[in-house]
């Protein structure tokens, strides 16, 4: 669908919020368009220059993209909300495309519900790592997070070690 829209409208920039979904889609679209994506944009300096985190978020790099089509994921919390009114953009219909489903089959869909905020929008994040030594000790983090209204995260090492059961947290990726 994104490629069909790009072919029809010839966009100069394709922008998506930095979410798990778009982090999966944007690189694939970039590969099809033979362009390099710029991920986790924190600031836009010009039509081809952006700031993004590097070194696990410990430094901010100012990058200039020479790609003919700029494919970006942006951290929505780094930008002011748009005005609720105004603007003059036109609404256009998306191109109709045929999607082949012969090689895949929808099995099921499950939504996990949590009282805790999503990490992308959480004002407070409690995160644990391998230092907690076991999955049992992560219950301490959950209790703390519930008391202070925080999101719960975990390091990649804790997830890979199996300390955190799948579906019970959102991974904390700096």
What does this molecule look like?
The structure is a single chain. The protein is an alpha/beta fold and 174 residues long. The chain has two domains: 2-78, HUPs (Rossmann fold), CATH 3.40.50.620; 114-174, TPP-binding domain (Rossmann fold), CATH 3.40.50.1220. The protein has four helices and eight strands, in the order H-E-H-E-E-E-E-E-E-H-E-H. Strands 1-6-2 form a three-stranded parallel β-sheet, covered by helices on one side. The longest helix is centred in the first third of the chain and has 13 residues, at 20-32. The chain is globular. The mean pLDDT is 84.
Give a summary of the structure in a few sentences:
By secondary structure, the protein is of the alpha/beta class. It is built from 4 helices and 8 strands; from the N terminus they run αβαββββββαβα.
Layout of helices and strands:
Elements: H1 2-9, E1 13-17, H2 20-32, E2 37-41, E3 43-46, E4 49-54, E5 59-64, E6 70-74, E7 125-128, H3 138-148, E8 151-154, H4 156-160
Parallel strand pairs: 1-6, 2-6, 7-8
Antiparallel strand pairs: 3-4, 4-5
Q: Number of domains in the coordinates?
A: 2
The DSSP helix count reads: 4
Quantity of strands, as a count: 8
| Main β-sheet, spatial strand arrangement | 1-6-2
Notable features of this structure?
174 residues; 3-stranded parallel β-sheet; Rossmann fold; 8 strands; 3-stranded antiparallel β-sheet; 2 domains; alpha/beta
């Amino acid at each position: 669908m994104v490629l069909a829209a790009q072919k029809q409208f010839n966009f100069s920039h394709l922008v998506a919020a930095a979410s798990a979904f778009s982090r999966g889609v944007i690189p694939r679209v970039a590969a099809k368009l033979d362009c390099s994506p710029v991920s986790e944009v924190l600031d836009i300096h010009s039509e081809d220059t952006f700031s993004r985190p590097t070194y696990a978020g410990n430094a901010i790099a100012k990058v200039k993209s020479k790609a003919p089509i700029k494919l970006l994921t942006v951290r929505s919390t780094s930008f002011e909300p748009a005005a609720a009114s105004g603007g003059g953009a036109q609404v256009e219909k998306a191109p109709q495309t045929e999607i082949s489903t012969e090689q895949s089959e929808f099995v099921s869909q499950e939504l996990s519900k949590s009282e805790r905020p999503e990490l992308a929008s959480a004002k407070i994040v409690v995160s644990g790592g391998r230092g907690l030594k076991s999955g049992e000790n992560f219950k301490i983090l959950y209790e703390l997070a519930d008391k202070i209204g925080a999101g719960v995260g975990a390091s990649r090492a804790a997830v890979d070690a199996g300390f955190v059961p799948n579906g019970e947290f959102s991974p904390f990726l700096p």
